[in-house]
Description:
Layout: H1 9-32, H2 35-43, H3 58-88, H4 97-127
Helix pairs in contact: 1-3, 1-4, 3-4
Amino acid sequence: MSLPLPQDEWKVAVNANYQELMKTLMNLVTASLVLPFFLVRNFLGIPEGQPIADHLRPSAYWSWGLLFLSLLCGMLFYWASAKFLKVVSGGTESWSEASFETLRDLSASGAVLFFLGGLLTLGWFFTHLGKP
């Protein structure tokens, strides 16, 4: 496999920057998944033996669902990013460079939007924590 051509070096650099941003986002998403457990256990003073599920509201489940969708979009991003880099570097694929670039950009946008949706529903859960 040949190395990227000089005129395509900027594409490799931009792709690397996208991957760094996505890595940060995926770390935030993963950390956000445990917040409902932490808050219910610490702020409501749930005893060790009592299940936390009794105190979770639908917004916590919605938050998890949206955060998992963000993670799935992140995985799709990394796949499309690797394939994009392969095509830019001279490799052959059945899809074009533009197709992988579009898929990479759409999956990154999906990851961000689902993360924001997960944060909003997580915020709803936090503000209604302990209320009947």
